[in-house]
Design a protein that fits this description.
This protein is of the alpha/beta class. It has 16 helices and 14 strands.
Length: 465
């Protein structure tokens, strides 16, 4: 009993400290719920997402804030002018996007590559306006501290490929990256959680403190060397991870967890993912590092399989899927181990619907596999913020099934009229460009959509000198 009282007292103190911390942050950083922009952002486009996720302060490791070294008066004056100039540009962008959201019209903006249109977007005109403003204004500074392979490097193959690819593309980017930190709107911390685990995590001892030491030390270095972290308490700083432990890696620095922009595959609102400041990006399993052979599928008239899934049993949703459907139906094909006579990707390309249940974590590479195969995704998840859902209307090109409806899955899919299915399949083909990996990146592809998600989160913050 004494231990319980002591623990409760400690937690109460921690909550009070956290509240005080946020009071301090709000003086410097003002998250803006800008009228117009906030209604365009698809913050409610989730599966089973809580409308007001609660932060459990007692689950977060406590570490002191980083004060950094002082900056001279002359440096402060220069920095204030630069900051005011940057914020003025963002204010203009906000107003232009706000006006675009009111119109919700077919875009009249010129674009040699692609003009967003159709039902796959929440507001195609506003998205196009925002995208063009991003291209003309947005600048990202990549901290140069840290040595590969932990920093500035990451895996470009397997299920975590997007973490390494984004790091690689950002390092070589000439459009958005700036080498002058005074001109940057956001600051990217280029560490790879996947590489930290691979090189520093002992498979037997399994001491997760390696994450803490690496992340805390890196923030300490950049906060002492540069003035930008302390200026905003991290609100204009970005971390990106596709590892399941990506959210965990940010626990160890409060500002990184509560204030900074976290771009995560594991976008789970039950684990404190906050779509107002955090961005979801897709998990893409590139076994060879290339998408060759993955794009395209049969036309609707030649898709002979109603629905398909093959994958291991883990997590809380897949056991229910297997219980009801594993190798029990000739139209709805569900396998834990795919028979050798079948090709996984051929099965995707022959199926009308591709079942995409969450596994250990909410994200699943099967969503992008379905989109690549031009197969309508059937999403079964909880608390998941879908990638780019502030721009894309997922309901227009996917089916969302709750966990309680798994037993009625075939009935639900059979009940969809053929005409509606064909419209959705066409939209899957249209939305595909936003999930394709190009090397080098091309406009409107997955790299640029991630950048746009970061751009939107930066627009939701105003930093005062």
């Amino acid at each position: 009993m004494a231990k319980q009282v002591h623990r409760r007292s400690y937690q109460n103190v921690f909550v009070l400290f956290a509240m005080a911390f946020f009071a301090i942050v709000s003086v410097v950083v003002m998250p803006k719920a800008h009228k117009g922009i906030s209604t365009w952002l698809g913050l409610t486009s989730t599966i089973g997402m809580s409308s007001a996720p609660q932060f459990r302060f007692n689950n977060i490791s406590g570490h002191g804030g980083f004060t950094g070294k002082s900056v001279s008066k002359r440096d402060n004056d220069k920095r204030d002018v630069n900051l005011e100039r940057l914020e003025a540009g963002l204010a203009t962008a906000r107003e232009l996007i706000r006006e675009a959201t009111k119109l919700n019209q077919t875009s009249t903006l010129e674009d040699a590559d692609y003009v967003p249109h159709g039902d796959i977007y929440r507001n195609a005109y506003a998205f196009h306006r925002s995208y063009l403003l991003m291209e003309s204004l947005f600048k990202i500074f990549v901290y140069e501290e840290g040595e590969p392979p932990i920093f500035h490097n990451g895996p470009c193959k397997n299920i975590y490929s997007m973490e390494g690819l984004f790091l690689s593309f950002m390092e070589t980017d000439t459009k958005f990256r700036t080498l002058d930190p005074e001109k940057a709107h956001v600051y990217f911390l280029p560490f790879s959680v996947v590489m930290i685990i691979e090189y520093l995590f002992h498979p037997i001892i399994r001491d997760k403190a390696v994450l803490q030491r690496t992340v805390v030390d890196y923030v300490r270095v950049i906060s002492n060397k540069y003035p930008f972290w302390n200026r905003s308490l991290g609100a204009d700083h970005v971390v990106l991870s596709c590892h399941d432990w990506g959210p965990r890696a940010t626990w160890y620095v409060r500002q990184l967890y509560f204030v900074a922009i976290r771009v995560l595959c594991n976008a789970n609102t039950s684990e404190h993912f906050n779509p107002k400041k955090d961005a979801s990006f897709p998990e893409i399993n590139l076994k060879t590092g290339e998408i060759t052979g993955l794009i395209g599928g049969f036309p609707p008239s030649k898709r002979s399989i109603l629905a398909f899934f093959a994958g291991r049993m883990h997590g809380r949703i897949r056991p229910l899927l297997f219980q009801h459907w594993k190798e029990k139906d000739k139209d709805l094909l569900v396998y834990e181990t795919l028979p050798e006579k079948f090709s996984y990707h051929d099965m995707l390309k022959k199926s009308k619907y591709c079942i995409c249940p969450s596994g250990h974590e909410v994200a699943s590479p099967r969503i992008v596999e379905a989109i690549y195969a031009e197969c309508v995704p059937v999403l079964i998840s909880q608390h998941y913020v879908l990638p780019f859902s502030d721009v894309l209307d997922w309901e227009s090109f996917s089916i969302q099934v709750s966990v309680s409806e798994i037993s009625q899955l075939k009935e639900i899919l059979m009940g969809i009229p053929e005409e509606k299915y064909r419209r959705m399949q066409e939209r899957v083909k249209q939305v595909q460009r936003h999930f394709v990996v190009n090397n080098p990146p091309k406009r409107f592809d997955v790299f640029h959509m991630i950048i746009h998600s970061i751009w939107l989160r930066r627009l939701n913050v105003r930093i005062y000198s």
